[in-house]
Each structure stands twice: as C-alpha cells, then as structure tokens.
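Before we proceed, please read the two lines closing this message. Report back on whether the structure tokens fit the sequence:
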Amino acid sequence: MNNSELQQRKQKAIARGEGNAYNVYIKRAKNAELWDVEGKRYIDFGSGIAVVNTGHCHPKVTAAVKEQVESFSHTCLMVTPYESAVTLAEQINAALPGPTPKKSIFVTTGAEAVENAVKIARSYTGRSGVISFNGSFHGRTLLTGGLTGKVQPYKAGFGPFPPELYRIPYPNALLGITEAQSLEALNQLFKCDIDPARVAAIIIECVQGEGGFYPAPVSFLKTLRALCDEKGILLICDEIQTGFARTGKLFAHEYAGIEPDLVTMAKGLGGGYPIAAVAGKAEIMDHPQPGGLGGTYAGSPLGCAAGVAVMSAIRDEKLCERAQAVGERLVQHLQGIKARYPALVGDIRNLGAMIALELVENGDINQPNTTLTKAICAKAGEKGLLLLSCGTRGNVIRFLPPLTIEMEVLDEGAAILASLFDELANG
C-alpha cells in the first residue's frame, strides 16, 4: 500500500474536516526522523505539533509504556487509581514556580484541560466571564473555540459559541500593538462589556502558538498578574504548546517570574501518549466537589507512565538547556537565509526551541507573504522535511524539532530549507 492509495482510502473513510498537512503515511519513527510506507525518510521539524519534545520512541518512554501495558491498560483513575498518576502529579506540582501549594488533575487533551481550567475558575470565583486574546488558540471544542481568537478554520460555521467569552488584542510590537494598547483595551472591556467583578479568569499563552509564535512581553505578564490580583480574577497560563522544556524552561511563564493561579498542559507531557493536565494553587484546584472533574480516560495509566518517563528524560538529559542549544543553532541557519533574502524574511524569533520565520514581501512586515509560506511548506515534504505554518496572516513557518534532535540532522533539515528558498524565492 502506497501513500496515494492510503490517501484515497482516508478521503473515503475520514471526514474532510480532519485533514492532513502531508499525504504521507508514516510506518516508523526514531527521534527526529520518520519513514513512510514507501520507505522514504523525513526530518521532523514539527514533533507532531510540539508533542514529542523527547523525540519519537524515546527509550525511557517506550520502556515505561511497555511495562505499564503488560500490567494493565485501564482501570479509570476515578474508580481504582494507580501510583503513576500520583507520582506524576507530585512532580508537576513540585515543578510549578511560586510558594503556594499546588494540586493537579489529569484529563486527555489540551482542549479538555482548558475546559476544566475554566470550570475550576468559575467554581472558585463564583463568576462567569473569561477573557482571552486575539490570535490565541485554546482548542476546537465549542468553549475553547469561543476562546480562540482565529476564525479560519477553527470557528467558521461552528457557532454560536458560549456566552461570557471576551477577547482583547495581544501585545505584539512587531505588528504595532503595544502593551499599553492591550491594557487600554482591557480597561475599555471593563467599562463597556463586563464588570471585572464578573470575570472569573484571563487566559493567555505566554507564546502564542497558532497565532504566530509571538512571545508576550515579560512586563505585560507581570502587569497582568498584578491586575488579576487587584480585581480577584484568576490568571490561567496556557502552556499546552510551550510546556515541558520547549522554550528552554519547563514552562514559559517562568521567564516572567510569575505564579499563575492555574496552568493548562498537554502535548509534550506524554511524549506521544494522550494525556493532559490542569495544575495550580491547591485551594483553587480543590474547590470543585468530588466527581465534578475527571473523565473515563482521564489520566490514562499509559499516559501517566509516559509522563513520568518524560519528566525523567527532561531532568536527566537536561532538555531545557538542549532546547536553548537547538534554538540557537537553527536561528543561525535562519539568519543565513535572511542574509540572502532580506526582502522575504520579515522576522526571526525564538524562545528556546520554539522558533518562527515570518515571511513578507518587499521587506515590509505589513505585507505578509502567504503564498511563499504555503509553497515552502508544501514543497518541503517532497524534499524530505516536515514543516508547519501558523499565524493569523498565514505567513509564519514554525519550527518545533524534537529537543533530542541530533545536530547533524538539524543541520541537514536547515540545508533543505535553504534549498527551498533558492528554488522558490524568485517565484
């Protein structure tokens, strides 16, 4: 069976809404490399959208899951729990910054984590309003879709969304949105749309993911923390894409030195196995009554075993430091591309190994080059490189290689990218 035949079968069997970026069907993978059913090799610069930070088939993760599945695969954490869930929660709680005691819950997906964070915030505060940011991505369910600040393809045709959800501009100096403008928009929201005494939470990505890999300024996060304290609003940091060493810290909010009330996490936590979590201040986390949180598959034994192994790998292999090294190495390559094509590269930015290349026309950041972005990402697959795009304007190539990627493989992938510019830059 080849890729084309499998794609034809998929189109007949799976709804088109669940699309795929590449018509490539993977048979096996190892660290930062994948091989399809036809035997072709690919370098993975996407990590399954920041999931396999520890690489495909990390030995510790694989061994832990094998050991777990030989014992049992499911009992339901809410019926008869198991030690791995307790251990993983203890490790997450200990890893979160700040002096306040922490507690966690486990669920299955990032969107589910965000939904539960909102539930917890509403339960604790007795308030209903939730504020997010333009360009944000928090999931594809109705509630998280309502929080998400990007219409195509996440919101179009799916409304109406739940009430009491509000958005303000995300501070982005590159695109001309200052911190002062974001804060003034929040002030106007409080004056015109919702009394702050009715706001349960503000949720923010410390680096926007789908929105374009734009980092929130440290000063803005500190101001937001102070404002939430002043008005009795909970601050939720969405660390679903930024978490687990991706940015050079275990969590991106550590750069701001703040203590969120709640943190949502998923993706890199399980090293390829579905698991997500909400963690935060114990008093807040304990407010919902027993049975109010959870789910049949929440905190799967396989996911918990994988999570414990991921935490061990991050610690033992110093993957936060490795993320910095990977980011620096790839940025050097991207700067070489910018030097050759200054009119096409509007910006290069990174926080650890969360790296973005913003493409423009005529060197003008206000002229997004969506056409070239699409062409490079599409052609990359033919050349054996897997790339992801993002951004509200569709002109950002995002790089999320496994933190364990061999430097020679990283260099090889960067060389393929450079060749794509040479081939496609002139139209």
Q: What stands out?
A: DSSP finds 13 helices and 16 strands in the chain.
